User: Fold these one by one.
Assistant:
Number 1:
Amino acid sequence: MKTQQEIDAILAERRQRDAKIFYIDPERVTAADAAADDGIAIFRRKKLFGLFHAGTEVLPCIYDAIEPLGDAFYLIGVQGQQALYDLTAGRFITGYDVAAVSRSAGSLRLTGADGKCGLLDTYSRAMIVPPVYDEVGDLNYSSPYVWVRRGDSFHYVRVADGCLLSMPMLVMAFDGGDGLYGMRSDGTVALFSEEGTSLLMEYRRRCIAAGGRILLQNFVRRLEVVADVYGNIIN
Amino acid sequence: MKVSKSLLNTLIKECCRGLEYDSDRRRHTFVLARDIQRAYDNCRSAAAAQGIEFEAFDFNRLTSAIKLIPDAGREVSLNYPLTDADLLPGEVVEIATPDGDRRRYLKMQALQYVSLSTRQAYTMPADVVFDRGRELTDAEGCHLADMDTVTLWAPDAMSLHVDSALMPGLARRRVADSLWPLAEMAAALGPSDSGADLLRAACDCGIGSHTLSLIIEAFQA
């Protein structure tokens, strides 16, 4: 894997070469964001790709691949390595160490070359979960939290400010709930405060209000559990 | 023996006939399979199919746990004052009095409880609080107990497994607002009656085997 300096050197050399062949008109490859049709297009000059907006060059034709991800985010490839580019902000928001990007509700799920995952909110355009975790939950606008896994333990990240909320030895966490629910190593579920304290009475009240059962889901793991008022999993 | 949930469900179905009348206990309870040797053989085969060793010791442990369901449970200490709204119908409050006496009250519906020791029903005052150091009185002001400690008597693991095996769909049911119809059904059940309808009715009320056993104990015997 090439370092950022090596990539920069390759791009600098390509930029010089591209400037010398300015007289060759770049060929429009595709509308970069066909759904938006806002004048953004990918162009190609001599096998290398660039990005243009309303006829103006945004990224020169010096990249091996440009893949539109929607919401004006692009995956830019150089010699088999990829980086994420935000056209709205006009800047790269990662280095060339992105192995894969997939879309999930309102977010881009990033997997780094080291296998670590992160989450980028496509609405606020902020990296709410940096790609340093082994697994990340789905972003859900009804929940102020998203779960993350490091090793065998699950924790939460507060979406508003990206703060990691360390939880006490959770073996599972859940998506989209109205709080920090987690499964402990004894197989029971509980509701936790941001400080990681079990909120027994609050859990009990929520469970009673829901008819004696709480439904918790982990969309990434395709897991659905129903818990009773004591936190026992009963499905 | 470490088993998967689905295997345990299979084992429970092999070992337990469901809710039937037990002449020794003189009430409906979760009774064991009649042909216990066959149940054991079937359990061994089911476990072997999943590459799990299943010995007589495991079988005995499983059948003992099923037999003990009416008496089994675990104490849950919340260390918070509990109002009536903090409890679901079917939950049991266990009160230890200063003289060491233990009394269990099963919540039947809002403010209505049955003493599992005296089988007497009580209506509690609207502001009832189960909390250590307080006095428990009924709605008419009659003294019931001085509360030294207050705990909840929750279902144990085996009851939950039995629910999962014998009461499909229970997890999706809301707990009913009142358990009196279930109690009346349990009281009306005769020795020759099958417990299948009662088991189904309990499931419809969102009530598992733990609470159902307590209701039967309070209203049938």
Note: Chain B touches chain A at residues 76, 78, 80, 85-88, 91, 152, 154-155, 160, 163-164, 170-175, 206, 208 (CB under 8 Å).
Number 2:
Amino acid sequence: MELELRNVTVSYSSAEKILDNFNLEVNKGLFFGITGKSGSGKTTLLETICGFHKPEMGQVLFNNQNIYEGKFDTVSFRKKVQMVFQFPENQFFETDIRKEIEFGIKNTTLSSEDLNRRVTETLQTVGLNDNETEELSPFALSGGQKRRLALACALVLQPEILLLDEPFSGLDNSGQNQIIKILQNIKTKGTTILMVSHDPNVLCEIADRIIVMNDGRIIKNEIPPIVYSDKQFCSQLGIGQPDTITAANLLDVNLNNDFTYENFITKLAEKLLLKNND
Amino acid sequence: MIDLTYQTGNSILHRTKPVIKFLGLIFCSVIVLLSKNLLCTLISVSLITILMVFANLSIKEVFSPLKKFFFFLIMIFLMNVLFTNSDECLYSYYFICISEKGIEQGYNIVLHTLTITVLSSVYIRTTTSIEIMKGIESAMQPLRVFNIPTKDIALIMSIALQFIPVFFNDIERIKKAQMARGANFNRGSFLDRIRSVIPLVIPAFISAFHRADELSIAIEARGFQSDKENT
């Protein structure tokens, strides 16, 4: 177990609990999609995992060590667990994007050569590696590029766990697809990812498990087909269903728990062929 | 998180006319600033007690939103105690001179700042933004004779007051984001600590300017015209 939350309770004021007796086990290399209504505690969950909200009760264990214990080395922990906040472009301050990425690792023991190599590799990972772009100010980038730069700032530390708070908000379709590709690439390298998102299409496409939250508690922690096939559950919690399920229901196509667009097209084609043959 | 936003309630202060509250705030602030030492202490304690009763607030509710402000007050006091020029030093070490005058000056400045901050925070917490605007506008009504744009000034002041907590929350959010990226604001030498504030200050200013820009467009888009009266 890489990360575990045991009976965690977090509240900003005594009246309201943001996380209420929260339990979660995160296994290495898995991609967790976190969804739920606004105000259900998704962002607080990520910030608590990152070490920003000391729980009133319970423990947050990283490799079996409580991260909120006095002796715990928070500085090195934050290098292993990186968080990209919502609208991360608001955190930029350097003069060019290389310096922006270097900010996180310049205090490590890496030599300047290794540091440069690491930054170049990260720029390649997020597709910002052409010479012209590298010299640009972070503020001169487009919305999608800024989001990829923010992701690069986290990835340069090669974190074991990556926490993402609505990385697609405000992005156009192509920006969103670019981020999805980067995340799929990171996932293959074994990084554990916890991503908050309201988009069932994206979550269904890339997440291994979906955590549905409501009032600071986990309502469901299951694989995407189980979560999203229950129409009543999805509409009750306001999490929506992937477009493929909605279309399949309308066209009476059986997707066999595979909600990808490819499978939908295949099954639809099969059905049409069968109909024609009949 | 600093909570200095309007809180719903039905206390005497909540029900008082906004213009009276605004003029009261100005009047009390002037009285506090003009008083010194024991008189200042007496006035401050009395004002805060009266406010607590009128606003239906406990001591904890009055002072807890200002927790982060206390460090700033301690710094003001220490600066005055350590660096006020005086002929009669109680204790001196190189350029540092601790004198009765410095202690007195530090005490008065801290008390003035604290009392006015408490008065303003209670005013903000018991008055909605529209009431604040109306209060300031009514109080400045006589200045219209001199063609002073009182409506604009009232709007600017009301927005500035309402955005103080928003600005603090922005800084808190940016601080978390930078800490998540490996920034450490509590380590290193004095110079390192000053340098470490750069990743906090630049994004905070950019965010504030963006917000101001967006807000001005939104206000215009919603049809605000300073020279027109409300219907």
Note: Chain A touches chain B through 24 residues (CB under 8 Å).
Number 3:
Amino acid sequence: MSWILGTDDLGPLATGAAVLGSGGAGDPALFELLARQVLATHGPVTVYEHAELPEDAILVSTGLVGSITAFTEKPGNGYEFTRAVIRLRQALATSRPVYVCGYETAGVNAFLPLIVAAQTQTPLVDLDGMGRGLSWLDQTTYDAAGIPIAPFTLTDSHGHTVVAEAITGHEAERYIRTLTVSMGGWSAFAGYPADATAVGSAGVHGALARALRLGRNLDAEPHRRLGSGRVSEVSWQPGTEAAHGSIVVWLGPPDDRPLRIETRNEFLLALDSGRIVATAPDIICLLDQRTMTPLLTERVLPGYQVDVRVYPAPSRWTEPGFAHLASPAAFGYSWAGP
Amino acid sequence: MNARPTVSQLLAGQVLEGASLLGGAQGLHRTVTDVHACTPAEADLSRFGTHAALVLQSPVGYQLEMLLPRAREAQASVLAVCAEPAAVLGSTRWLADRLALPLVAVPSAPLLDLAQRLHALVHGDDTNRGLTCARLARQLGRRPASPAETVHALNALLPAQCAILSAEGTPLAGEPPARQLDHLLRAAAPATIRDEAGAVIALPAGSASGRLVPLWLIAETADITDSELNTITAALQIAAWAVTAWSATHQLEAARNSAFQASVLTELLTAGDQVTAHTVGHALEAGWTLDGWHIGVRILPTDTASRRSQATTTRLRQVLAAQRISAPLVELGDSWAAWLSEPDEPAPDRFSAVVAGVRRSLAAMPGAALVAGIGKAQPGPAGLARTLTEAWELAQIAGISPGRRRVEHAGATDPRRLVLAVVSGNETVRRSHLLLGALLEPSNNVLLETLDTYLTLESSASATAKSLHVHRNTVLKRLDRIEQLLQMRLDDPAIRFALRIACRAAR
């Protein structure tokens, strides 16, 4: 059933999107403000479930690619994402109804399809290609299912637009990262145009609703609690492409032992006494105990009192044919034994 | 098995100088038996065996942390990582502490270099021992080394004073050990004694006959480590083979020579005045001088325990040489024949010196009940036979019991020789046969030997029992039986005297 997403939902959505970000996908605060302004101007957005779409519908996914830090330092006007979707619709030159959705319902990217839908009055579908925060654009369930990313568009705040055709997977990721550097460190993306049926059988359903639900109540769904304690060490490996780091949380009584978290943009591994107790694609989340808000990997500092939780992975990532793209090995982690 | 270093000892050594112990101090006492370079991806750590030191090249933090429980499960003794200590997080250190598995960071150490140096440290004892044994084997292996050469090689290679002793403890080579080793040598088994004063390692060697150990290799040292002890033991085992080879070769040669010499001497003794050129040739081949004057010496055992053996012959040759009696010594039956050859007739004082030398020689063998007879100097090949025959007759009347002389010689025993001549006469022999009667039957040999021994040992039943290795009651029963057979009483001194002569003549 479709539902209405209004300005009152934006606060909880920011919290829930940060939970799904698993320490990555950026701080949504600025995008929450942007969305609040857009929704104030254009009114609330109706969110559709995939089952409600007409058979001939085409879905396009949108979001930010590149550095969220760069966006924070050099913010856009908020219309870049809408222009990317419009340019993609032009490139598609189709008379079929076009719906918009996200490729990553986590962190900042949870807000961008919402802004586009409000500005273009295009229906928003609660469907995406990750269902959680992940590092690479080609790390989507769409890629796993063979849905091509192209044609896709990239726009920047200066009005530059790049339309790419006939490029897929890892090559597309490489081009996008190179172009994004030239476009100021970040760009608005619209891509993965596909039939609603194909996207429906490949995408992650209901991540927006899940984010909202968790944002309103962090205990709204079953999860594992690995413990609470004080962050005692944070170590970053210099020179790595993703933010490779290790965090030690000294669990308080009665556990009274260290818990080690490994990060590469997101929290990806948790080790207790040398044994793995949680891995991606499950969503490892460090909550600041003072505010009960999720922490980004780069904002975890020694002395923070945190709650370490593990929320279940979107079920799509546990299915054969999909799991390999979000497993620890996909991030370069390897170890001997179980 | 060599002593292996503990983790503490490794840390104190030069190889791990500058290394930091990050955790697991409770496991520092563990021994390290082997060293392996490995990666965190190693699937089966148990293949490295227990008590191993595992060396890793800058492992990624989480991999190191995950390796720790697996290494502990595989009973590794220590993990050494080529990494800066700061790169290892507190959770890893805590886990090393909890598992009591020492975790050591060695900054800027190339993996293989570190592993190789640790390996040399752990297996250094094996290497040293192997090198020492190889050097010793090279020195002893070219030909059967003599005891002196063996001891020389051992002393040069080992941190110990080595010697080769006879079964009785007499040094054949090397300095006699400072300690009393009688109890050790009697045990006839390898032994090691370690105490505050140092250590003694004793290893039997040589080709043993029965349960007797012919030779002993002894190493004695003031202070010693376990490693040195192992090296010394291993080297002695190699030397034992060399000594055994020498002993066996020596014995074979001696046996071959002994048989040849006995044959040539028998030819000489039986030739009388008719010594053939053939016999002279054989004598020359044996290295003997038949020309000139000869003083014959015959040495006899007086009991079964002192019967001729290779060891006794060797010892006899040594003690005679020590008295400067450089005479050929030939094994003949159960006895020995020796003679001194000189170009001119020996002066009386020369003869006396030989007698004194033989007497001292026998005294130097307290464990062997040997007596000797020394014949008058005689010239030429026939003279050699005559002096040896005379020596044999004199040796017959020599004895070790009270009232008898251990060495009888032609220079001072004329009255005795008269008696000897009487008891050896044909008429005496004939009468003796009549007197002894039934005792001369082969089935009564034991009784005749008992009677002869009893009378020789001054009619002492106890001494007879001891000499014949039987119980005194057995001797008494046999004497009863002898009295019955001869129908004479042995408590009559006149009867005893007559029987003594008869027994002597009946030999």
Note: The mean pLDDT of chain B is 84.
Number 4:
Amino acid sequence: MIHKPWWKILTFLILMYVCTMGFLVDIPKLDGRLQHSVRNLFFHVPMWITMMTLFSTSVVYAILYLRKPSSKYDIYSLEFARTGLIFSFLGLATGAIWANYQWGAPWSGDPKQNGAAIAVLIYCAYFVLRGSLTDDEKKARIGAVYNIFAFFMLFPTIWILPRLVESLHPGGLGSEGNPGLNPNDTTSAMKMVMVPAFIGWSLLGVWIATLRVRVALLKEKQLNNE
Amino acid sequence: MNKLKQIGATIAFAILSVFANAQTATAESHDIMRSNGKVYVVMAVVVTIVLGLFLYLISLDRKISKLERKS
């Protein structure tokens, strides 16, 4: 699967569609609040969706490793987490840029911002933990256990807690549901770009992660041959 | 490998056509690139960046494939 070219071509086509239609699609006139910055829906939000996709894949491989210890599963788990972390940094950075012009400051201690930062730090600790162990098997096993813990911290910090309190992110009043973009601010035409954006950017993340996996597998093979 | 070359050529020609259009567009002052607060200039920048990243990814992918075939 990871060597098949069709999904890479699909990624390219989807992202080209997103990067052009993201600017061409008509946006609603929301009393001048968001203006064109609402188009960040096709670029900032998918960073987080991609991070979720990669971290979810990572935790699946962590569980597979604990069921049947094989260094292949560990490599998949590690490299998907690594790429996911890159996308979470991109999400924080792009969010800060948007917040600077929308909320007046790059960081205003918004519950969703804080929650995302905590989640990112928890994932950073995964790499610190792995780096502090010297034995490869221990590294993989403890890493896998911690990975599961980190994943189950990720959900409350970015999906549940921001929904319970008031947030600068629209719709963060608990009952309204989505602490991302207010569903009333988007049109069906925008959703036609948003959904491909989520899929396209996620596929791009998966592509980068599989490249890292392949390099790691090659390195391992080399070590075994020596 | 040939397939990749074909795809590369298609992309290259697509970019060329954009440049070709840009040349004729400068003649009129109210073309699409200058409308809407020049937001489409940003679109061109984003498309170029993403295209560049894709070309880089494709070259990495091919390099790794070559290594895999060797070992």
Note: Residues 52 and 84 of chain A are 7 Å apart (CA to CA).
